[in-house]
């Protein structure tokens, strides 16, 4: 399943890609921002950083049994500091559709578009 984020900055595109990740599991509008989780990762380039970021989000979703509805990312020199807000999965309310297993290098791209916006995308195994 492909996830794609677009934003005015690279950090916003990473945030939107993570939100797209949530959206393949459940409707993010049904998730309440009750719990905050801090995440950090680093990679040699922005594309590998996107994969690491999404995999960190997947790890937290899996080990904490939560869904996230809001993200905040700051980027500097291929280092990411992020925050995710969400809540424990409520099967009846969230109706989770799939379980993401991991972000892949398939269709991996992080780039500035001709209009100045940023794109961050890849395929996620479910």
Structure, briefly:
By secondary structure, the chain is an alpha+beta fold. It has helices at residues 10-25, 46-64, 91-94; strands spanning 2-7, 35-42, 66-76, 79-88, 102-103, 109-112, 118-125.
What order do the helices and strands come in, and which of them pair?
Elements: E1 2-7, H1 10-25, E2 35-42, H2 46-64, E3 66-76, E4 79-88, H3 91-94, E5 102-103, E6 109-112, E7 118-125
Antiparallel strand pairs: 1-7, 2-4, 3-4, 5-7, 6-7
What are the defining features of this structure?
about 130 residues; alpha+beta; Archease, Possible Chaperone, Chain: A, domain 1; 4-stranded antiparallel beta sheet; 3-stranded antiparallel beta sheet; 3 helices; about 30% helix
CATH class: Alpha Beta
Report the average pLDDT across residues. 97
Domain count, please report it.
1
| Radius of gyration of CA atoms, rounded to a whole number | 14 Å
What is the H-and-E element order?
Answer: EHEHEEHEEE
The unreliable regions are none
Counted beta strands: 7
The structural class is alpha+beta
The CATH topology comes to Archease, Possible Chaperone, Chain: A, domain 1
Principal-axes shape call? globular
User: Helical proportion?
Assistant: 25-40%
Which sheet architecture does the biggest sheet show?
Answer: 4 strands, antiparallel
Please report which band the strand proportion falls in: under 5%, 5-15%, 15-25%, 25-35%, 35-45% or over 45%: 35-45%
State the distance separating the first and last CA atoms.
7 Å
Annotated CATH homologous superfamily: Archease domain
Number of helices: 3
**What is the level-2 CATH architecture name?**
3-Layer(bab) Sandwich
């Amino acid at each position: 399943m492909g996830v794609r984020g677009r934003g005015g900055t690279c950090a916003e595109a990473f945030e939107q890609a993570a939100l797209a990740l949530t959206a393949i599991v459940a409707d993010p509008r049904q998730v309440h921002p009750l719990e905050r989780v801090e995440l950090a990762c680093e990679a040699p380039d922005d594309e590998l950083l996107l994969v690491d970021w999404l995999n960190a989000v997947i790890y937290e979703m899996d080990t904490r049994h939560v869904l996230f509805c809001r993200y905040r990312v700051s980027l500097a020199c291929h280092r990411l500091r992020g925050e995710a807000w969400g809540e424990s999965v409520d099967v009846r309310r969230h109706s989770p559709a799939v379980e993401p297993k991991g972000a892949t290098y398939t269709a991996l791209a992080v780039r500035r578009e001709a209009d100045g916006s940023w794109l961050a995308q890849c395929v996620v195994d479910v």
